[in-house]
Amino acid sequence: MSDPAAFREQIRRSPVVAVLVIDDALDAVPLARALVRGGILAMELTLRTPAAFDALRRIRSEVPELYAGVGTILFPDQVARVKASGAAYGVSPGFNPAVVDAAREAGLPFAPGVATPSEIEAAYGKGCDVVKVFPAEPLGGLPYIKAIAAPYSHLGIAYIPLGGVSMKNLESYLEWPEVLAVGGSWLATRDLIKAKDWDAISRNCEEAASLAARIRG
User: Fold this and answer.
1) Known catalytic residue: 83?
2) Full pLDDT tens readout for the chain, 217 residues
3) DSSP H helical segments within the chain, as ranges?
4) What is the domain partition of the chain in residue ranges?
5) Catalytic pick from 9, 44, 83, 146?
6) CATH 3.20.20.70 is the classification of domain 4-216
7) Which one of the listed residues 62, 126, 132, 175 is annotated catalytic?
8) Among this protein's residues, is 105 annotated catalytic?
């Protein structure tokens, strides 16, 4: 994969990653600007709607300062299109070896989803030292993640918990050094985006970014 160290560093700079579902590509640019205005500099745009690829291209063209990745990559044949659309990195909810292989071949930095020690081992065996833990809170939250991560602490694996993370538990996640970043869908919910409430989104981002800056410096 192309420059995985740069991928880690970019995500580290914005330890709260906005996880987005965009239904209308015309919302992409004002949404991206609202994130940046609030201090959030990384995003994961999920491939859950037909507008996703158009939205990504608009963001990459008009808000280049936002580190824009793509999530919900489920099939190997999606990887080439993700790369061609300008995504900086890719993410999946689970661990699919064929998708990871396709990302490697395309030179797309990639963080597969894991939920068990076996999946951590499988991902690391494929060259992934950044993994997404999903769904973090339903699995057992930070205590569970610490438990399954313990046998691999000497390998330098970094974790991005997603699913149930919010302002209520953000601090505890970010205080653990092995958490590279967290994914936050609460920053810009689908309803807020549909309502075009960019000010509310910026306020959510400011609150999260301020807390992250206090903890991470």
Assistant:
1) no
2) 457 788 999 999 999 999 999 999 999 999 999 999 999 999 999 999 999 999 999 999 999 999 999 999 999 999 999 999 999 999 999 999 999 999 999 999 999 999 999 999 999 999 999 999 999 999 999 999 999 999 999 999 999 999 999 999 999 999 999 999 999 999 999 999 999 999 999 999 999 999 999 999 8
3) 4-13, 28-37, 52-62, 76-84, 97-106, 117-125, 136-139, 141-149, 170-175, 190-194, 198-216
4) 4-216
5) 44
6) yes
7) 132
8) no
